[in-house]
TrEMBL record:
Coiled coil segments of this chain: none
Name of the molecule in the record: Hydrolase
Recorded family membership: Belongs to the carbon-nitrogen hydrolase superfamily. NIT1/NIT2 family.
Annotated Pfam families: CN_hydrolase
Organism: Aeromicrobium chenweiae
Gene3D superfamilies: Carbon-nitrogen hydrolase (3.60.110.10)
GO-annotated molecular function: hydrolase activity
Keywords on record: Hydrolase
Claim: Signal is one of the keywords in the record: no
Record keyword DNA-binding present: no
């Protein structure tokens, strides 16, 4: 599987974001043979200040942001995962949309764990999605979806793997701060190691967020990583690498404690 992670810093101007996303994605071409392109959480519109009304800027699943991502997915012949704020009758969802190579909306994932931590309360501005792990097929590989703060809950990653996921996709807007980069890199590597899966994580960059979008292999080694600026990183994820890791390290099959849902 050929993947590209698009690191960017979103604005609170949705139209400006669409323009900058179009410009950044123009660096990718159909000839690149990409299977999967991942944009960060809140790619549609930045969270803004705590009093910024996200319900007022949230969009429906057939709005201009999804239209743009659909057009780019068709152009590239790739599946694109991107984060948006999805309009509801009340507080919006923090949603990942998955657009197939045909430009059609394939799945959504509504963030389960809202970021009520480190002095912030996302639940004042968003509603949580149902506890329903989302796994889908992309180019013959089973892909599980997580968003940012979900990363701190290993049980979600394990549920995704139990549902067949061989690759975890983690769009994020990981707020910068003391020890936050260490947490980001360590938790991504841990999810890869304990589940023997590839992990691809596309983060927001810039002054407010940690950046460091990265790809980890099933051994937990970071094989590609950005810094904090605007960037596109690429990687090839081989199914054989995952099979070898699970053969040498069969920790999933050696489990003796399993939770029941």
């Amino acid at each position: 599987m050929h993947v590209a992670l698009v690191q960017r810093a979103s604005d609170i101007d949705s139209a400006a974001n669409r323009d900058s996303i179009t410009k950044q994605l123009s660096e990718l071409a159909p000839e690149d043979g990409l299977d999967l392109v991942v944009l960060p959480e809140a790619a549609m519109h930045d969270f803004g200040a705590p009093d910024h009304d996200l319900a007022a800027v949230a969009e429906p699943l057939d709005g201009p942001f999804v239209d743009l991502i659909s057009a780019e997915a068709r152009r590239l012949g790739a599946t694109i995962v991107a984060g948006m704020f999805e309009r509801t009758d009340g507080l919006p969802f923090n949603t990942l949309v998955v657009i197939g190579p045909d430009g059609e909306l394939r799945r959504t994932y509504r963030k389960i764990h809202l970021y009520d931590s480190f002095g912030y309360k996302e639940s004042d501005r968003m509603r949580a999605g149902d506890v329903e792990p989302v796994v889908l097929d992309v180019a013959g590989r089973a892909v599980g979806l997580m968003t940012c703060y979900d990363l701190r809950f290993p049980e979600l990653a394990r549920d995704l793997v139990d549902a067949g996921a061989e690759l975890l996709v983690v769009p994020a807007a990981w707020v910068a701060g003391d020890r936050k980069l260490d947490h980001w890199r360590t938790l991504l590597a841990a999810r890869a190691i304990e589940n023997t899966v590839h992990v691809v994580a596309a983060g927001q960059g810039g002054d407010r967020y940690t950046g460091h979008s990265l790809v980890a292999d099933p051994w937990g080694s970071i094989v590609e990583e950005a810094d904090n600026g605007s960037a596109i990183i690429r990687a090839t994820l081989a199914a054989a690498d995952l099979a070898q890791a699970r053969d040498v390290n069969p920790s999933l099959t050696n489990r003796r404690i399993r939770h029941s849902s």
